[in-house]
């Protein structure tokens, strides 16, 4: 028998900036993603300040969910989804971020989306900010580097909490907020442009701006939790952390210490604030080593203490292996590290490690002791649409099978895990590279890296497999 609880939330996840398209429809303003060029691992994405005629901006097209949402949600219902994780585009509600009143056309669009979910018995799980912020706020204030964004985000969160208080129960504040700990997170997470390269993977880092921006975002997220619970005490509000857990390459104590520091800086730094309401003890050392002085508002400490989350959500795709040695083969992953000799990797150099998910679940539950949900997990791959319109993806089925078994083992360990939303359940634009070719979905979208195609939807083999998994509550994984 399956170890998954009867009410386990099986589903999938997408993000507005990667799937919706219709960037100039219904009063929507430009977001930072709407001026993020396409690219690949050999051609990094360019961060434009405004539209440049010689660049292609794939997020403006996405998978055209804006015009296909009824069809897409019906396909999710056919698979048996219990939950659908999606995000609201801030710029559909407040086009520049500075408006005093929300854009009614944008609010109505998400009314229609949530109504469609509810009609099919699917619980919406909604992220307030998923790698998307108004471009105007980046150009005028340098994004989250400025504390003024806290008040603007509070206004945005209040508007959507009030509007959808009877349609949405589960909320997340900021997607993968801890990626702001990394230089590549400056633009993607914080909407910050530091002086230096236009390529987001090659930014000239300014730790003062980065850590201040992250602090401002943590405060804004805590305010959102406070406001949301005041508007509807039944709201369940969670955080969202990018989990790329580290292993030491060897039992060399220096490698073990490096591994511990990776966990502290990339997971617990933000996780402790959001769950415990205060920075961990080692934050002072991080600030000192980076010559950072955090500007605190008078209410910040109290807000962080009061605005803690009800559950912990995270993404999990890979593990990292770290070492102090310089003679070990590099991993090929965007996040660095070295190659783990015990693991295979996908086409983008990400180590495939199902056992690491069980390890992660136990580490998080042991530290925080609050309910957990895996809101992103999946395999990016080059899928082929056959002449008969079928897509055979046994590699994805195998990947997901092993990770679901790992979750089952964590449940047997005693972890309180209440849901799983596989990432990119419908093919969408890659956040890292801007490609459509890096496909994750159960549902194939007929579009290429430049938006050419019919945008017709086709069921992959994994579609039928996941339908069976949900129908048997994780018992039948064959």
* Biggest sheet: strand arrangement: 1-2-3-4-5-7-11-12
Low-confidence stretches: none
Task: State the helicity in percent bands.
Answer: 25-40%
How would you sum up the major sheet?
Answer: 8 strands, parallel, barrel
Which topology does CATH recognise? TIM Barrel
Number of strands: 14
Determine the strand fraction and express it as a percent band.
Answer: 5-15%
**Rg, Å, rounded:** 21 Å
How many distinct domains?
A: 1
Distance between the termini: 14 Å
- What sort of overall outline do the alpha carbons produce when their principal axes are compared? globular
Report the total helices.
14
Q: Considering the protein shown, what is the CATH homologous superfamily?
A: Glycosidases
What is the CATH class name? Alpha Beta
What's the architecture, going by CATH?
A: Alpha-Beta Barrel
Give a brief rundown of this model:
The chain is α/β, with parallel strands linked by helices and 478 residues long.
Structure description:
The protein is α/β, with parallel strands linked by helices and 478 residues long. It contains 14 helices and 14 strands. The strands form four sheets. It has an eight-stranded parallel β-barrel with strand order 1-2-3-4-5-7-11-12, surrounded by five helices. A hairpin with a 5-residue loop joins strand 9 (344-345) and strand 10 (351-352). Helix 2 (65-79) packs parallel to helix 4, helix 8 (207-231) crosses helix 11 (300-306) and helix 12 (354-368) packs parallel to helix 13 (394-413). The mean pLDDT is 96.
């Amino acid at each position: 028998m399956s170890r998954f609880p009867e009410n386990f939330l099986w589903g999938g996840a997408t993000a507005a900036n990667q799937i919706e398209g219709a960037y100039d429809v219904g009063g929507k303003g430009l977001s930072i993603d709407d001026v993020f060029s396409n690219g690949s691992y050999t051609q990094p994405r360019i961060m434009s300040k405004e539209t440049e005629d010689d660049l292609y901006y794939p997020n403006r097209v996405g998978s055209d969910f804006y015009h296909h949402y009824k069809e897409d949600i019906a396909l999710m219902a056919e698979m048996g989804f219990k939950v659908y994780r999606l995000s609201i585009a801030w710029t559909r509600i407040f086009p520049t971020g500075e408006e005093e009143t929300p854009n009614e056309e944008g609010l109505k669009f998400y009314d229609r989306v949530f109504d469609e979910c509810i009609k099919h018995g699917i619980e919406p799980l909604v992220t307030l900010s998923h790698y998307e912020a108004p471009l105007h706020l980046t150009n005028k204030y340098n994004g989250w580097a400025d504390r003024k964004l806290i008040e603007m985000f509070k206004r945005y969160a209040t508007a959507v909490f009030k509007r959808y208080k009877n349609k949405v129960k589960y909320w997340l504040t900021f997607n993968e907020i801890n990626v702001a700990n990394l230089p590549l997170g400056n633009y993607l997470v914080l909407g910050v442009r530091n002086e230096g390269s236009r390529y987001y993977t090659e930014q000239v880092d300014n730790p003062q701006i980065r850590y201040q921006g992250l602090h401002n975002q943590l405060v804004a997220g805590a305010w959102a939790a406070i406001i949301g619970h005041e508007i509807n005490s039944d709201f369940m509000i969670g955080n969202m952390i990018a989990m790329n857990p580290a292993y030491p390459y060897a039992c060399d104590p220096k490698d073990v210490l490096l591994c511990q520091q990776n966990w502290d800086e990339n997971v617990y730094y933000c996780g402790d604030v959001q769950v415990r309401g205060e920075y961990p003890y080692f934050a002072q050392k991080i600030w000192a080593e980076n010559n950072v002085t955090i500007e605190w508002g008078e209410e910040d400490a109290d807000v962080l203490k009061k605005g803690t989350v009800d559950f912990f959500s995270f993404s999990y795709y890979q593990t990292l292996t770290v070492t102090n040695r310089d003679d070990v083969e590099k991993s090929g992953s965007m996040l660095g590290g070295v190659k783990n000799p015990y693991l295979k990797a996908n086409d983008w150099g990400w180590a495939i490690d199902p056992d690491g998910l069980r390890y992660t679940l136990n580490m998080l539950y042991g530290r925080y002791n609050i309910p957990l949900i895996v809101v992103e997990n999946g395999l990016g791959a080059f899928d082929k649409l056959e002449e008969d319109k079928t897509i055979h993806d046994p590699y994805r089925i195998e990947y997901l099978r092993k990770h679901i078994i790992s979750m089952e083992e964590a449940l047997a360990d005693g972890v309180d895990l209440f849901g799983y939303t596989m990432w990119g359940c419908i093919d969408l634009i890659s956040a890292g590279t801007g490609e459509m070719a890096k496909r994750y979905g159960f549902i194939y979208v007929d579009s290429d890296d430049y938006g050419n195609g019919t945008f017709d939807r086709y069921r992959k083999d994994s579609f039928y497999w996941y339908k069976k998994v949900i129908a048997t509550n994780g018992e039948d994984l064959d």
